[in-house]
Design brief:
850 residues, nine-stranded mixed sheet, single chain, alpha+beta, Immunoglobulin-like, elongated
Length: 850
């Protein structure tokens, strides 16, 4: 832009001399100003003149703007800067400023006639806001200004950290390069790689992709960035070099960033466990403490600063000497031996503590007598057996703690009861270690008594609490524990079978017998038992001779008894905490004295103990009873009660039974509620079925009561919820097993449908589980309780298979006594004869007197 100063007189024509190259190149010219009518460029003797015609004359201040272009053929280029000049003016002064873009560099050589000024001052005058490379002021138009234009090269500074980890089988190289890019952005970065190293990973915050290339004999990795990057950028590279054996001396190589103007870095050399590394020689490096290196670690640390210009190859050399270290291994063995009558099951936990160097192979000594040997553990590659020595090879070398588990079996034969069987207890050993200690634990889960016969001096008796924590919790059946400080121990054990102890599988808590005896000796007996069963399948009852069963009920359910060797078998239900009621009615016949005689009654013989028993006898009322005895004790009554079996008494008996049913109803209802609340659905279902069998769930009209109907609904809902939860748990476990996201939430309507479906499934399952048998429907008999009632009781009938006895003497009060009768007749005859004689004697005396 040029500002032209004009004379005080108005002018309508302005002329300016242009650069010859501007119009010759034909690139373009733009003229800006107020009141411009036309403008044209003319050739005036080898120079270009711009003539601007105005619409009207202008007065002292006028601004005319000119913009010209010139093409640059190639870069770099050195040329002289020329500007347009105003013609026909008395004085011309002004400013010249140079500006370039981000991709060009300007080198300015200001000649005569120019004075450098601040770029901000140029902006105030001209109103320019663009960044300027330089600004000058001139007082005469004949100044000289030369400029060198060349592409702007980016300045890349880098800090590289090479971390080398030396192992026996491979060398790991981890490199991190932090770039600082100045002046111009870059689209790619290049790094030189060491030979014989394989790239495993390349990462960067601005990286798009990477590619390995060959530059002559050198390996170069070129990292393409997502966009032109300016500022900070980081790259991480991971490389590995495999080797057959560890060299004594090796040259350390690293990653070298290329195209940098400033390079500093660190080299950290470390070694794996089992390898010791020391410095042999170095060049271009300065050894520094490893804690001064960012993200230091451990090992040898070096720092370097590359000179300017930065060389294309690694500017440092480092040689190290390597030495292998022998591993130190300690083993601790815990042997668990479980003895049964025919087999010894063993399990050994071998815990290795590895220091100084990693190991890849372990040896185990397992006796040849062991069968079905299994060796398990982490990272196992193969197992080889050579006699009683096993070799276990791992996938990779390990250091620290490593545990192997060995299981085996060994035949064993235990003699009969009372005889001892000797057994030599041996375990697994770990040869080839610096030190081996261990524990020998003996378990006996069968009917065996284990006694130590002899033990070598290496074994020390220990307590179960002394077992190491890493071996797990000791089993309750552990009987012997020994620990040893060195292998080679000997332990001889004696196994003896225990005598089997009788265990009470069932108990009759309460036994009630009610017997009605007729005058001719016919008897009907009702036997009511409350049995607590813990494992019995049947209850054996030996009835008196000639007895015949009329009805039998177990837990309110009519059953059909079976016979075995003349004994009656009643099936029992196994209840968890409630006693099972058993009812039996039978009839029999026995001789009863017609006048007077001894009577002995025997109860049925049971095959389980009886806690308490009570026997009520209804004997004929026309007899007198005395001399009571037997195994049962007669209750001391003041007088025997004589009962008749009238309609009124029958009604009272029915009312008594109804009260008992109401009590059973209340207890059954409460029991079902408790079981449902405790989550014991099986017991709750069993209690409800028991209430159904006793017919206490219905009222007098045979309709189910509201309380039991609600209980049945609660039980059905609890069972269906349990079934639904189990199905959902199976689905969730399968989803987790197959790596799915889990079970999706089911909508509320679908959940209700699922609950109803589960309820129907449970009902069908209940019906399917019920075993269909021939229904036994005997009549429930009410005993005709008639006669003199006598009560007897007995505590603790512990002898099984023996009946309880009641004996007494019965005398018939109505039977005729002929001797007495003859005597009375004789006495009456003698009395009559004496009276007749007396009367005849008195008559004779009266006649004589007369």
């Amino acid at each position: 832009m040029r500002r032209l100063a004009v004379s005080p007189d108005p002018v309508v024509m302005l002329e300016a001399a242009l650069q010859e190259a501007a119009t010759a190149a034909g690139i373009g010219l733009r003229v800006e100003g107020e009141a411009i009518r036309t403008w044209q460029v003319k050739d005036d003797g080898g120079s270009q003149v711009l003539t601007v015609e105005l619409l009207k004359g202008v007065t002292p201040g006028y601004r005319l703007g000119l913009e010209t272009e010139r093409a640059i053929d190639r870069l770099p280029e050195h040329f002289s800067v020329e500007t347009p000049h105003a013609l026909e003016v008395k004085r011309e002064t002004g400013f010249v400023a140079l500006a370039g873009n981000d991709e060009l560099g300007l080198t300015i050589d200001a000649g005569q006639g120019l004075q450098k000024v601040d770029a901000a001052e140029f902006g105030k005058i001209t109103g320019q806001t663009n960044a300027l490379a330089a600004a000058f002021q001139f007082l005469k138009p004949d100044f000289a200004l030369n400029v060198l234009v060349e592409p702007l090269q980016p300045q890349i500074e880098a800090i590289v950290r090479n971390r080398v980890r030396i192992g026996t089988e491979q060398i790991h190289l981890d490199a991190r390069v932090d770039y600082t890019i100045k002046r111009a952005g870059v689209f790619a970065l290049r790094l030189a790689l060491p030979r014989e190293f394989r790239i495993e990973s390349v990462h960067g915050n601005e990286m798009a992709q990477w590619m390995e290339k060959s530059d002559g004999n050198d390996r170069v990795v070129e990292v393409t960035l997502k966009q032109r990057t300016l500022g900070n950028c980081s790259l991480q590279l991971g490389l590995v070099k495999a080797q057959k054996e560890l060299p004594k001396t090796m040259e350390v190589a690293g990653v070298h960033p290329l195209d940098t103007v400033k390079l500093t870095g660190y080299v950290v050399v470390s070694s794996e466990v089992g390898v010791q590394t020391r410095t042999a020689s170095f060049e271009g490096l300065t050894e520094v403490p490893v804690n001064t290196v960012p993200e230091g670690g451990a090992g040898l640390a070096y720092k370097f600063i590359a000179g300017e210009p930065v060389p294309a190859a690694t500017p440092w050399k480092l040689s190290v000497a390597n030495e292998t270290v022998d591993p130190w291994v300690r083993a601790e063995v815990v042997n668990w031996l479980t003895l049964t009558e025919s087999l010894v099951t063993g399990r050994a936990l071998v815990r290795y503590e590895i220091q100084n160097a990693p190991v890849k192979e372990f040896r185990l000594k397992i006796p040849a007598a062991f069968r079905n040997v299994e060796i398990t553990g982490a990272n196992i590659r193969r197992r080889d057996q050579n006699g009683d020595e096993w070799r276990v090879e791992l996938q990779n070398k390990v250091v620290g703690v490593h545990v192997l588990t060995v299981t085996w079996e060994q035949p064993m034969s235990v003699k009969g009861q009372g005889a001892e069987s000797l057994f030599d207890a041996v375990g697994v050993e770990a040869p080839g270690v610096e030190r081996e200690t261990g524990v020998m634990a003996i378990l006996s889960k069968s009917q065996l008594q284990i006694v130590p016969k002899s033990a070598s001096a290496e074994l020390i008796r220990a307590d179960v609490q002394e077992l190491p924590d890493w071996a797990g919790r000791a089993d309750e059946s552990t009987v012997l524990v020994y620990r040893y400080l060195r292998p080679g121990y000997k332990l001889s054990l004696a196994a003896q079978r225990f005598a089997q102890a009788e265990v009470l599988q069932a108990l009759i808590e309460d036994a009630r017998l009610t017997t009605v005896v007729a005058d001719d000796g016919q008897m009907m007996t009702e036997l009511a038992l409350s049995v607590r069963n813990n494992g019995r399948q049947f209850l054996e009852i030996n009835l008196p001779n000639g007895a015949q069963v009329w009805s039998a009920f177990v837990a309110g359910q009519a059953v059909r008894p079976s016979l075995r060797d003349g004994r009656l078998l009643l099936p029992l239900e196994r209840a968890s905490d409630a006693a099972t009621p058993v009812e039996l009615i039978y009839v029999s016949a026995d001789k009863f004295p017609r006048r007077k005689g001894a009577v002995t009654l025997a109860s049925p013989a049971l095959d389980v103990p009886v806690k308490s028993a009570r026997w009520e006898l209804y004997l004929p009322p026309d007899y007198g009873y005395s001399r009571f005895g037997g195994t049962m004790t007669r209750e001391p009554d003041t007088a025997p009660v004589v009962r008749t079996f009238s309609a009124l008494e029958y009604k009272e008996a029915e009312q008594e039974k109804r009260k008992e049913l109401e009590i059973a109803l209340s207890s059954s209802r409460d029991e079902v509620r408790r079981k449902i609340a405790a989550g014991r659905l099986d017991d709750a279902n069993r209690a409800y079925r028991l209430a159904e069998r006793y017919n206490v769930t219905k009222d007098k009209e045979g309709r189910e009561t509201a309380e039991f109907k609600k209980l049945e609904g609660d039980l059905r809902k609890a069972q269906s919820d349990n079934l639904l939860n189990a199905q959902q748990a199976v689905v969730a476990n399968n989803s987790a097993f197959f790596g799915q996201d889990g079970v999706k939430q089911v909508p509320e309507v679908q959940s209700q449908l699922d609950a109803k479906t589960a309820e129907r499934q449970w009902e069908r399952l209940q019906r399917a589980q019920e075993v269909v048998t021939a229904a036994a429907r005997p009549l429930r008999v009410n005993l005709p309780a008639r006669g003199q009632r006598h009560s007897f009781s007995q505590i603790l009938q512990t002898e099984v298979g023996k009946p309880m006895l009641v004996s007494f003497v019965a005398s018939n009060a109505k039977a005729a006594n002929w001797p007495v009768r003859i005597g009375l007749i004789v006495i009456a005859f003698v009395g009559l004869w004496a009276l007749v004689n007396l009367m005849l004697g008195q008559r004779k005396m009266v006649a004589a007197t007369a």
